[in-house]
Amino acid sequence: MIEIKPRSPISDERIESAIKFMVQAFQRSTKTSKPVILHSLRVAFDLMRRGYGEKVVIRALLHDILEDSDVNIAQIEQ
Questions:
Q1: pLDDT along the chain (78 residues), means of 10
Q2: 63 within 8 A of 19, measured Cβ to Cβ
Q3: pTM of the full predicted structure?
Q4: I need a labelling partner for 60 at 20 to 30 A (CA). Which of 1, 21, 38, 52 fits?
């Protein structure tokens, strides 16, 4: 079992929202067929396990969206 000790509070609602946004972005993508969803989840969970907070974890979830999907920065900022 992985023990997660965040340095700052993590909102399940915000993390869940970021995961849903990421999945939707990659499902609609015409730019890649790589397993980017799993990669982004692995990075995010690793950072959570290391104690990083919500903002860093959300950035990890979304870090490949601009490069590997059709989403633009304005859509992410919403």
A1: 60 90 85 79 92 90 89 86
A2: no
A3: 0.77
A4: 1
